[in-house]
Specification:
The protein is mainly alpha-helical and about 140 residues long. It folds into two domains: about 40 residues, no CATH class; about 90 residues, no CATH class. The protein contains eight helices and no strands. The protein starts with 6 loop residues before the first helix and ends in a 15-residue tail after the last helix.
């Protein structure tokens, strides 16, 4: 999933985190996943997703500037999940599906309901730390 930068740049950021963890933990043999588990840190991708989710929470609860409130809207069709946002699909990738409007809605809708329903910003921040990012539901990943 892209987050407003190229996949190559994101891979470099993950490699830097991996190198730092190797040095800090003095472990040069374990896998990146094992290093993350030992340190209790998420991947940089999950960190970016959490930051985006926090900004969306702040926007939906009128804690962000007015221009942010124009980006996200609750879905009028969400009957069983009342806190879902309207997802906008566009034909272009750069200005459509990878925009903050589309990506933010996708991230918000993938959050568990109990996190979306948090009553305060501090509680939301506390619970978002337990979220490990959206789970892919495609055929290949579900095997």
């Amino acid at each position: 999933m892209r987050h407003f930068s190229s996949q190559k740049s994101q891979n470099k950021i993950e490699k830097i985190q991996e190198r730092c963890l190797r040095i800090i933990l003095n472990d040069f043999l374990s896998s990146y996943k094992t290093l993350l588990e030992k340190s209790g840190q998420p991947t940089m991708e999950v960190k970016r997703l959490r930051i985006l989710a926090i900004e969306i929470y702040k926007t939906l609860n009128n804690l962000n500037p007015d221009f942010m409130r124009e980006i996200f809207h609750y879905s009028p069709y969400a009957t069983h999940k009342k806190h879902n946002l309207q997802v906008h699909h566009r034909r272009t990738v750069k200005f459509g599906n990878n925009s903050i409007k589309a990506l933010g809605s996708h991230i918000w809708n993938s959050l568990p309901e109990y996190i979306k329903e948090m009553s305060s910003n501090s509680k939301f921040r506390e619970f978002i730390k337990t979220w490990d990012g959206p789970q892919c539901k495609c055929y290949l990943c579900s095997k």
